[in-house]
Amino acid sequence: MSYGSAHLVHAMLDGLRYVLWVVVSGFAVVGAAFYGGAGVAAVWQKSGPPARRRNDEIAREAAEGIAEIEAFLATQHPEQEPPEPPPAPRRERPPTTGDTV
């Protein structure tokens, strides 16, 4: 192997080593950001104020509506299914070039 080709091989290996270090460093940074961000979010949620509960009129009406629906469904019998509607009427196709009228 000549001096020039050996120098080229070493330069390519140095470039490959640089790219691998960038990739490994990127994985480390992404992993630290992922796990660190989740840890910070958990601590922030624990130290923050508790979540507000909706005890307003909308929540009360929703609970009443759900209770009414459940009461209605409890009185229904599953055997009484509505009859299947008749099929929709089909329109006739207009005649094409090869059809006889």
UniProtKB/TrEMBL annotation:
Name the UniProt key words of this record, in alphabetical order: Membrane, Transmembrane, Transmembrane helix
Record's superkingdom?
A: Bacteria
Q: Where is this region: Disordered?
A: 75-101
Where do the TM regions start and end? Answer: 20-44
Q: What is this protein called?
A: Uncharacterized protein
Q: Can you name the source organism?
A: Jiangella alba
